[in-house]
């Protein structure tokens, strides 16, 4: 096929857009893709949503590697506490102490710093910014028929605040006193007293500064996403014709806008306690036998503020993955998404319920048992819309002509992970059972599978599916399938045994277990988990190689719609241009999931509805 960017009217889609499209006179003012010609404004300070999406993705990948390497170091400590770690001294410096016999060991305080940084980086910098920032930026304008975001400048700022947050966090890793080591939740008093531990000083200060910059990034992006979806949909694109990806990104942005400012308020009060001598979260504290002048505060107040963000944050991470998986499963099973409106209502229900379940993280903190019952009920109720989504994904796959490529395999893997990880949440949501399981490896296993690995699977499905749209080339399918099978087997090998550790009462965040006779029998299991983690990380490096190799050397895209999808992003030219469409913006004539209808494999959203055509499925 000829390059459609050069000959904009040789493709059937172009003829439809020319006939029915909406002319916004964009090119009278901006001269098309010549609008951005400066190297710096094109690749660094870009205001094009497609380039900003790539910036979020590659920055997120960098942080994923850093966070993954941290987990390998502390897994080595847990699996092989007696082994010589002197070989890590050139990398970790003084945090590896070497005795007279030349045996090196990891400093306990740095172990806690690694656990803290791993959690912070993966939750915020990778699974929030890397997932939502990438795909909200890439897909919202393309799938709703907009030239760009409502405010391209604000969009650029959202990335650079994220980048600035990363720079500050990265510098904190090299402080002489070490990065913050009080857990990614930053509970007082470790976070509120600079003298509490070595990492509670400058490391904690930079941690707070970094995350405040990060929240600014989230708010700038969220305002943009919401405004763009509400105000910039193309002609014919009603809310009920939007793909489920857009619904997911839209609701995710609203959740972030409502919950992240509460986290900043908690950080502000922590800073007051640290610097101004206030006692919002501190009371009757003794250090070295000396009483401090902090009276009247409560660390439980901090927990309420943190988890008011912390639980919606789970859905800020998982909802974009859910939207991506819905789209990928429908496209690659060649079937309309099952229960479109039910899927939308379930997203809305999850968003609402996510704000009234936060105290299920606090059953062991002395919360009134009557109040706990309220949170138990709503925690169990939130499983209902999640189950609706799982049922609809399975129903979409059932009877479909499924293409088992990398994108669809990761989408199916997401469903598997979400089911197995979600089922264990039923146990933790019960306040009576949580007394036994709280702060054990059962909790680690649950949230890593359902929020960590499942969200990564959704991200991978999206990358493999929309990589041609981002770079005009395909990723290698053989390497992609190898990446999938290595990751799904490895992830279950890492996290499934942790359930048994947790049921046996093995606590999380402990530096080593060989001092406890009760936990000595789990040495082999910890070694197995550590080896599985190392192998699984190796498969992620395979993905990184495939990704960057394919940007320059991957198979070139010759058809603008290689997956035969019905949504608008596949009507744009192969060579991405500023403004997305070279002429008119396409007009939407139908919903986003007309697959296998009236004897046709798929019908694009821009195809007018025929007089003899059957009604929309939803």
UniProtKB/TrEMBL annotation:
<dbReference type="GO" id="GO:0004129">
    <property type="term" value="F:cytochrome-c oxidase activity"/>
</dbReference>
<keyword id="KW-0812">Transmembrane</keyword>
<keyword id="KW-1133">Transmembrane helix</keyword>
<dbReference type="InterPro" id="IPR036927">
    <property type="entry name" value="Cyt_c_oxase-like_su1_sf"/>
</dbReference>
<keyword id="KW-0813">Transport</keyword>
<feature type="domain" description="Cytochrome oxidase subunit I profile">
    <location>
        <begin position="39"/>
        <end position="607"/>
    </location>
</feature>
<feature type="transmembrane region" description="Helical">
    <location>
        <begin position="314"/>
        <end position="331"/>
    </location>
</feature>
<dbReference type="GO" id="GO:0022904">
    <property type="term" value="P:respiratory electron transport chain"/>
</dbReference>
<dbReference type="GO" id="GO:0020037">
    <property type="term" value="F:heme binding"/>
</dbReference>
<keyword id="KW-0472">Membrane</keyword>
<feature type="transmembrane region" description="Helical">
    <location>
        <begin position="160"/>
        <end position="184"/>
    </location>
</feature>
<dbReference type="InterPro" id="IPR023616">
    <property type="entry name" value="Cyt_c_oxase-like_su1_dom"/>
</dbReference>
<keyword id="KW-0679">Respiratory chain</keyword>
<feature type="transmembrane region" description="Helical">
    <location>
        <begin position="343"/>
        <end position="364"/>
    </location>
</feature>
<keyword id="KW-0249">Electron transport</keyword>
<feature type="transmembrane region" description="Helical">
    <location>
        <begin position="204"/>
        <end position="226"/>
    </location>
</feature>
<dbReference type="GO" id="GO:0015990">
    <property type="term" value="P:electron transport coupled proton transport"/>
</dbReference>
<dbReference type="InterPro" id="IPR000883">
    <property type="entry name" value="Cyt_C_Oxase_1"/>
</dbReference>
<feature type="transmembrane region" description="Helical">
    <location>
        <begin position="407"/>
        <end position="429"/>
    </location>
</feature>
<feature type="transmembrane region" description="Helical">
    <location>
        <begin position="528"/>
        <end position="552"/>
    </location>
</feature>
<feature type="transmembrane region" description="Helical">
    <location>
        <begin position="56"/>
        <end position="78"/>
    </location>
</feature>
<comment type="similarity">
    <text>Belongs to the heme-copper respiratory oxidase family.</text>
</comment>
<feature type="transmembrane region" description="Helical">
    <location>
        <begin position="441"/>
        <end position="467"/>
    </location>
</feature>
<dbReference type="GO" id="GO:0016020">
    <property type="term" value="C:membrane"/>
</dbReference>
<keyword id="KW-0479">Metal-binding</keyword>
<dbReference type="InterPro" id="IPR023615">
    <property type="entry name" value="Cyt_c_Oxase_su1_BS"/>
</dbReference>
<dbReference type="Pfam" id="PF00115">
    <property type="entry name" value="COX1"/>
</dbReference>
<dbReference type="GO" id="GO:0009060">
    <property type="term" value="P:aerobic respiration"/>
</dbReference>
<keyword id="KW-0408">Iron</keyword>
<feature type="transmembrane region" description="Helical">
    <location>
        <begin position="246"/>
        <end position="272"/>
    </location>
</feature>
<protein>
    <submittedName>
        <fullName>Cytochrome C oxidase</fullName>
    </submittedName>
</protein>
<feature type="transmembrane region" description="Helical">
    <location>
        <begin position="479"/>
        <end position="498"/>
    </location>
</feature>
<keyword id="KW-0349">Heme</keyword>
<feature type="transmembrane region" description="Helical">
    <location>
        <begin position="110"/>
        <end position="140"/>
    </location>
</feature>
<feature type="transmembrane region" description="Helical">
    <location>
        <begin position="370"/>
        <end position="395"/>
    </location>
</feature>
